[in-house]
Amino acid sequence: MEEALYGEGGFFVTDAPAAHFRTSVHASPLFASAILRLVSYVDEALGRPERLDVVDVGAGRGELLSALLHAAPPQLAERLALTGVERAPRPPSLPAAVAWRTEPPAGIVGALLATEWLDNVPLDVVEDGRYVVVDRSGVESPGEPIAAPDLEWLARWWPDSPRAEVGASRDRAWTGAVAAVERGLALAVDYGHLRGERPVGGTLTGYRAGRQVPPVPDGTCDITAHVAIDSVAEAAGRPYTLIKQREALRALGVDGARPPLALAPTDPAGYVRALAAASAAAELTDRAGLGAHWWLMHPIGVDLPASRAWDDDGHD
Fold first, then answer.
1. Residue 238 pLDDT > 50, yes or no?
2. SS3 31
3. CA 220 to centroid of chain Cα atoms
4. Which tens digit of pLDDT belongs to each residue from 165-211?
5. Extents of the domains making up the chain
């Protein structure tokens, strides 16, 4: 999985992810607007510092950061320090104001974002007590017995399953990302599952040109697996809030309600715009689609005004 996604000729190194699958960032500008509102809450909680970091881990081609840069009001935009973290080369169309790195910078004061990054952090698949080995054509065979640390992870987070996906690598990746935040917010947005509700047989799959395909590790398709989000949340060792995207976006002002029909005869153009926005919001909050994504939030050294609506879902 590591080689197929990030090695020489790997999927994320050579291809544009947006051509193969649709994320919340690609679905609608409303998502970036909601994230900008959240960043504004972080800015307020930090006392509006001279420099406000916004770091996007798994930045793709920088779409979210570019949208934030263009949508931010002048008094915020002039203080934003935007950084994309990605193992692919810097996109040529990325605005010069956005920095590009392969690892998160240390000492972040602001927001660290990871939208659909953890599902692409490589992991091991195990079956019947052994690691699953797969060749570049997708043929599986049994490998070595499962190592003791992974057995411990499985016993706690994915017990009693003949086939499972070991999420310890995601735990380490997220813990490292959160540790880069000195003060502010770490936010992961991803599709995932909880202990007791793990999918039988796992979730490993591939995507190519908008279609779900077998996860053949030859570099031609995205290879992804849902995130054991409760394990990731606890691994960071900090208080957290864990809710679904549907509720998070609604708390940030994204509502899929249709505009009143009475607006149509008085302002037809406005009605059409409002209807289009409602349709986009409905996609982002769809219970069976993007709205089912998890939002994992770690406030670090701040009390976020926006989090008050989510306090009942918080964990210590």
1. yes
2. helix
3. 22
4. 999 999 999 999 999 999 999 999 999 999 999 999 999 999 988 88
5. 2-123+163-315
Length of the chain: 316
In 3D space, the residue among 279, 2, 35 whose CA is nearest the CA of residue 136 turns out to be 2
Residue 234 tokens, joined: 């606890």
Q: Which fold does the domain 2-123+163-315 belong to in CATH?
A: Rossmann fold (3.40.50)
What are 63-76's pLDDT values in tens digits? 999 999 999 999 99
| C-beta separation of 20 from 221 below 8 A | yes
H-helix segments, 93-181: 148-157, 168-179
- Bridge pairing between strands 108-115 and 181-190: parallel
Which amino acid, one-letter code, is at 25? V
pTM (global) more than 0.85:
yes
Sheet holding 130-134, edge to edge: 140-145, 130-134, 124-127, 163-166
Q: Which two tokens stand for residue 98?
A: 């956005």
Dist. CA 260–CA 263, nearest whole Å: 6
Measuring CA to CA, which residue among 152, 156, 158 is closest to residue 198?
158
Strands (E), the chain: 52-57, 80-85, 98-101, 108-115, 124-127, 130-134, 140-145, 163-166, 181-190, 192-193, 205-208, 211-213, 222-224, 227-228, 240-244, 294-300, 314-315
CA 188-309-305 angle, to 5 degrees, is 80
What is the pairing mode between strands 181-190 and 294-300? Answer: antiparallel
Residues 6 or more apart whose CB falls under 8 angstroms from that of 245 comprise: 24, 189, 284, 285, 290, 291, 292, 293, 294, 295
The token pair at 275 is 């209807």
